[in-house]
Amino acid sequence: MRRRMRGVAVLAIALTGTLSLVGCAKDTGGNNASGTGGKGCQLAPKPPAAPAATSSSNAGPKVDASTLRIGLAYDIGGRGDASFNDAAAAGLDQAIAQLGVKKENTKELTASPSESEDAKQSRLRQLAGEGYNPVVTIGFAYADALAAVAPQFPNTRFAIVDGSASAPNVTPLGFAEQEGSFLAGVIAAYKSRSCVVGFVGGVNVPLIQKFQAGFEQGAKTAAPGIKVISQYISTAGDNTGFQDPTRGNVIAKGEISSGADVIYHAAGASGKGVFDAAKESGVKAIGVDSDQYNQPTVAQDKDVIISSALKRVDLAVFDYIRAVAANDLGSLPKVFDLKVDGVGYATSGGKIDDIRDVLEGYKAEIVQGRITVKDKLTG
Q1: Which residues have a Cβ under 8 Å from the Cβ of 317 and sit 6 or more positions away?
Q2: What is the pLDDT of residue 378?
Q3: What phi-psi label fits residue 121: left (phi over 0), alpha (psi between -120 and 50 degrees) or beta?
Q4: Could you write out the DSSP letters of every residue in 134-191?
Q5: Per-residue burial over 247-273, b = 16 or more CB atoms within 10 Å of its CB, e = otherwise
Q6: What local confidence, expressed as pLDDT, does residue 315 receive?
Q7: Taking the chain (379 residues) in consecutive chunks of 10 residues, what is each chunk's mean pLDDT?
Q8: What CATH code would you report for 70-173?
Q9: Which of the four, 29, 169, 260, 355, has the lowest number of CB atoms within 10 Å?
Q10: Domain range 7-42+177-311+341-367, CATH architecture
């Protein structure tokens, strides 16, 4: 059921009791020359320089996907959310442009807020029943519906982003979100002048906790004395937290009033409210999933978006379609992580060009196994 709070005042009161403060060390001055005002955090020593990049193209032989009829079942928000769903849409668009998929042979359907499991199952049955194969489901919310529907269509290939279903015709497409979020935490630490940063999650579920865990670890690794304020828009079972910019705005303002001057969100379309709050308050923001600096629906806020933690759902969707067309699902990685550029960070706008060497150094430490990024919250 959709749960709404009555008014900003009620939500603000709730926030005071639920803010999570991590690493409440006092600002020690620091050597951060980025940003405006304040001294910034005392930064840890920079990681070793990353090794020179080498070409590792995995393009493989040319694949013709022109005969495929592809169905996409989006999570709430759908195409146009400037985040998670738009990343999936970009993968489909790339398959149309590069693999010969015909636009008229695709169908895109979108979930509604607070819909029932029956509605999700009906959507998947519709796509499979109309002959779309493969059918790609976007988001963990489809896991139960897919477990019920996939066995009913054994000759249809299904994929699910961020979930799994125990059926032989289902391919899970999973990500190391915590690794990209770690780099977002490093960015926040280097760009903060107050040595206080914030995280806004959409729904308090294990998937989004991976973003929080990585962000907090990255910020604390780069600046051990930093304070991280973390808050969620809705609780588990209430997925409206991914599509409520108003509540995202209020939560971000609460974190800003507590001193945060860089806010990172993992909240889907609710991130628009986070960006608006950052713009109004004159602080910085970090987007998620897509390169949000370049998303038209948040264009008025782009000047405060210093980066985005990329979750390459576009890459996963494109690679899956390509693998289906080539009849080679075994070529897909077990997880889309930093090693395969399945996660990363955006550089649009040039606002983090001065710390690219630092970020590449930390990335190399993770890829080479010298830093293990936690995917669960501790403590």
Answers
A1: 72, 88, 90, 91, 92, 95, 136, 159, 161, 173
A2: 84
A3: alpha
A4: SEEEESGGGHHHHHHHGGG-TTS-EEEET---SSTTEEEE-B-HHHHHHHHHHHHHHH
A5: bbbbbbbbbbebbbbbbbbbbbbbbbb
A6: 96
A7: 40 41 37 50 94 58 94 92 89 97 97 90 98 96 95 98 92 97 98 98 96 98 98 94 96 98 96 98 96 91 97 96 96 96 97 98 98 92
A8: 3.40.50.2300
A9: 29
A10: 3-Layer(aba) Sandwich (3.40)
Ranges of each domain in the chain: 7-42+177-311+341-367, 70-173
Query: Would the pTM of this model clear 0.70, i.e. be above it?
Result: yes
Amino acid at 130: E
Q: What is the DSSP string of 214-246?
A: HHHHHHHHH-TT-EEEEEEEEETT-GGGGS-HH
pLDDT of residue 56: 45
